[in-house]
Automatic annotation (TrEMBL):
<dbReference type="GO" id="GO:0005737">
    <property type="term" value="C:cytoplasm"/>
</dbReference>
<dbReference type="GO" id="GO:0030170">
    <property type="term" value="F:pyridoxal phosphate binding"/>
</dbReference>
<feature type="binding site">
    <location>
        <begin position="100"/>
        <end position="101"/>
    </location>
    <ligand>
        <name>pyridoxal 5'-phosphate</name>
    </ligand>
</feature>
<keyword id="KW-0032">Aminotransferase</keyword>
<feature type="modified residue" description="N6-(pyridoxal phosphate)lysine">
    <location>
        <position position="247"/>
    </location>
</feature>
<dbReference type="InterPro" id="IPR049704">
    <property type="entry name" value="Aminotrans_3_PPA_site"/>
</dbReference>
<dbReference type="InterPro" id="IPR015422">
    <property type="entry name" value="PyrdxlP-dep_Trfase_small"/>
</dbReference>
<keyword id="KW-0963">Cytoplasm</keyword>
<keyword id="KW-0028">Amino-acid biosynthesis</keyword>
<dbReference type="GO" id="GO:0006526">
    <property type="term" value="P:L-arginine biosynthetic process"/>
</dbReference>
<comment type="similarity">
    <text>Belongs to the class-III pyridoxal-phosphate-dependent aminotransferase family. ArgD subfamily.</text>
</comment>
<feature type="region of interest" description="Disordered">
    <location>
        <begin position="396"/>
        <end position="419"/>
    </location>
</feature>
<comment type="subunit">
    <text>Homodimer.</text>
</comment>
<keyword id="KW-0055">Arginine biosynthesis</keyword>
<feature type="binding site">
    <location>
        <position position="136"/>
    </location>
    <ligand>
        <name>N(2)-acetyl-L-ornithine</name>
    </ligand>
</feature>
<protein>
    <recommendedName>
        <fullName>Acetylornithine aminotransferase</fullName>
        <ecNumber>2.6.1.11</ecNumber>
    </recommendedName>
</protein>
<comment type="pathway">
    <text>Amino-acid biosynthesis; L-arginine biosynthesis; N(2)-acetyl-L-ornithine from L-glutamate: step 4/4.</text>
</comment>
Length: 419
């Protein structure tokens, strides 16, 4: 399964030694025929699972007609998807991108341009939160503020002020005469499934209104049904001025979008931003197909009830394995297990039991399964996670090969080869 010669892929990922050939629903099958239950969903991307017939048909239909025209011409599928996204949200305009980071770049540029067009070009700074993840472009690593992503890449892009996740006084202190916007994930994904409390989201909205700041939600991971509502901010009854989405909206096709009110977008005129590929007919066909399914009556109820079923069983799992699992977090089908062992150990042990989960910050293991997961599959997932926890306990019991406490985040020296 591993490459015999050094790979020509730039080694920026510590990849698990698995190669998948096909997928079906929540299941992935390797090239050598092993099936894995995927609770990672390709990092919250495979929102409708693999090989969803409606998505496959939409892709094949459009694939036989027209892939790309550029944004020099009108794209009916994009007009339609923008109408639907605006119909379903606070938004009045949409800019389509190829990725989450690009959706955030559009959001950042739009917020700066808004302040500039209001006669405040000096208000270009954006307050963000520790533990945030907004992407890997030069601006979005500065927005996310994580030193490990910034180091060595030259001067950090100017204009982002980071405050602790849960410190209102620090937040207020960070807002100054140059601040133009606040950017926040309603639930931090990479940061470890950390939920911003409802009252805090409301307080941010009120604060932004009182101080002429734009509120930007990064719903790239939380959006498109993941938390059981179409967007996570809805639960708090809070609308942003600008919202970035990606991951789930494409169901695996690379696409994103920046949604905004007309007011927030008023600085963006012809020529002020662009993309060659963003919003192309192929992407728009898939995005519309995802919306067809997510907007079907009952779909979001399904997400909520599967989320509840998971959370209940995860609480039981924690009760049975307190030496492995310290805390359950999250909402809908965006769940986190804060680990009492290195989170990489649980990721590896789960993989040995053929279930895929994803490490996150704060020593958390994330579950972001396809939203179409069934009750029986939730039960199967729990049996496998339970077995994985038991395996970890067996390996950690004092003995000749007792576990090192500081195994890496994504690999486990202890469990490697333990199959
Ligand atoms: C994944 C993610 C991004 C970056 O998206 P890319 O498509 O990888 O550029 C930004 N913000 C959040 C919250 C994400 O989860």
């Amino acid at each position: 399964m591993t490459h015999p010669a050094p790979s020509h892929i730039l080694p920026t990922y510590a990849r698990a030694p698995l190669e998948f050939e096909r997928g079906d629903g929540v299941w992935l099958t390797t090239t050598d025929g092993n099936r894995y239950l995927d609770l990672g969903g390709g990092i919250a991307v495979a929102s409708l699972g693999y090989s969803h017939p409606h998505l496959t048909a939409a892709l094949q239909d459009q694939g036989a007609k027209l892939w790309h025209t550029s944004n020099l011409y009108r794209i009916p599928g994009g007009e339609r998807l923008a109408d639907r996204l605006c119909e379903a949200t606070f938004a009045e305009v949409v800019f389509f991108t190829n990725s989450g980071a690009e959706a955030n770049e559009a959001a950042i540029k739009m917020a700066r341009k808004y302040q500039s067009s209001c006669g405040h070009p000096e208000k270009f700074r954006i307050v963000t939160f520790e533990g945030a993840f907004h992407g890997r472009t030069l601006a979005t690593i500065a927005a996310g503020g994580q030193q490990k992503y910034i180091d060595g890449f030259g001067p950090k892009v100017e204009g982002f002020d980071q405050v602790p996740f849960d410190d209102w006084a620090a937040f207020e202190a960070a807002v100054g005469p140059e601040t133009g916007a606040v950017m926040v994930e309603p639930i931090q994904g990479e940061g470890g499934i950390r939920t911003v409390p409802t009252e805090r989201l409301r307080a941010l909205r009120a604060f932004c209104d009182a101080h002429g700041l734009l509120l930007i939600f990064d719903e790239i991971q939380t959006g498109v049904g993941r938390t059981g509502t179409l967007f996570a901010g809805e639960k708090a009854g809070v609308s942003p001025d600008i919202m970035s989405i990606a991951k789930g909206i494409g169901g695996g096709f690379p696409m994103g979008a920046c949604l905004a009110t007309r007011e927030a977008a008023k600085g963006m005129a012809v020529g002020s931003h662009g993309t060659t590929f963003g919003g192309n007919p192929l992407a728009m066909a898939v995005g519309n197909a995802v919306m067809d399914v997510v907007m079907e009556p009952g779909f979001l109820e399904h997400v909520r009830s599967m989320g509840l079923a998971f959370k209940q069983r995860l609480a039981e799992l924690q009760d049975r394995h307190p030496s492995v699992i310290a805390e359950i977090r999250g909402d809908g089908l965006m769940l986190g297990l804060r680990c009492a062992v290195p989170n990489g150990d649980l990721v590896a042990a789960a993989r040995e039991r053929h279930v895929l989960v994803i490490a996150a910050g704060d020593n958390v293991v994330r579950l972001l399964p396809p939203l179409v997961i069934s009750e029986a599959e939730v039960a199967e997932a729990m049996r496998r996670l339970d077995a994985a926890c038991t395996d970890i306990e067996a390996h950690r019991r004092p003995g000749p090969a007792s576990a090192g406490a500081d195994a890496g985040h994504n690999t486990s020296a202890v469990l490697k080869g333990a199959a």
